[in-house]
């Protein structure tokens, strides 16, 4: 029996499109900030005076311009309240882990001369903590005393090695914003306008690196100051498409899928604005029409998936380039490993190409996510989402079938502990009458792989009935990992779903698939009524 296929309602299918084409399709929709002649804010931001602010998360303008939250409070969803990790005791927001008057519980005061440490009254501070008043604290991790006594981290930031920063950062491509998330609580910080078209993210030493395709710049922001550029470095051509970055101190590798290049930047000390102090040391061309999509490192070799281009009939793609970086300032392309020899399990015996889009390196080898599409039929999946496993010792390639029912168009892969998580972009349908927004999708979500075998899957649900008024379907994209939690971006409606990897299962924490979820998906990148798509294009976790 032939497999059912999705039919087009207007033009062509969205995430059966090559991901690069999806980006190009929405690039023209991006707003670039506030023009000089009157302030115009992108979705989710409101004009207060002459500034665009997020009334849902700005403590100085919470719910309304000028409505400032009180001491110790943060703004969440437009209402002031106690910051995560504190609670209201007698009308004040306190940490019962360290407050001597409320040690372990509201009203539980320690005896005279005692201190409060980890919710317990003690006679003195234990080793590794610092006394701040009558509290014993770890200044490297306490958001109320981060790096120094009394230094309170703003809004929902955490304390990372004595510096305030968000745990996870999302880039909103369509809205031109960055938004921070606190892990564990999944609380959203305020949205900040940043760059003009951030396409990929990375994190290094407390800074967020944001590759801006519109301006062809590698922008840096402190992990707690997402609206402020502290350093910018050129990405070369004005038509750059920096699809992914790899931080490998003291170097950063950037692959450009339009200019077919690998750029190498090196950290050379703090810059004048306080950034990392990067400079480009070299750039190599990976070959015409190769369209490199990602980069992973195993030993002293980079593995770079080559998607290929339609103009060259994908003859230079469907492979993985290996680049020797034993001397990163003189990288040398070794060879390419073809992916065409694996059984791609065509649904109908017709054309299906690997079209690799992501890669990650583990002790077991290098794993490459294969979209497995038919580029000659609107880039529709014509085989299950797959992984290719490359043995670095001999370059041998084997395939892992992720299962067509759970996964079509495998687009991103990353390790979580000793397992792999794969994001499946699925096969979605574009509504051409509504600005090419996806109105239906199948086989999109996550797959968990253990010892090269799929062991669990998670289906992305929009929390509404597709096709009904106001329902925006969810389409999986890239994700970031914080602890055992996967923060998964939605490229159609701008949300972030949170899924835990637990006991060999994928357990939804924020989403719509299970009643046990902690709450709905995070509205990270709001939908602009002037724009049909809101793309949470990339996420990064700060260590």
From TrEMBL:
SUPFAM superfamilies: YWTD domain. The keyword tRNA-binding does not apply. It holds the Pfam family Stig1. Residues 1-24 form the signal peptide. Keywords: Signal. InterPro entries: Stig-like. NCBIfam families: C_rich_MXAN6577. PANTHER family: STIGMA-SPECIFIC STIG1-LIKE PROTEIN 3, STIGMA-SPECIFIC STIG1-LIKE PROTEIN 4. This is Lipoprotein.
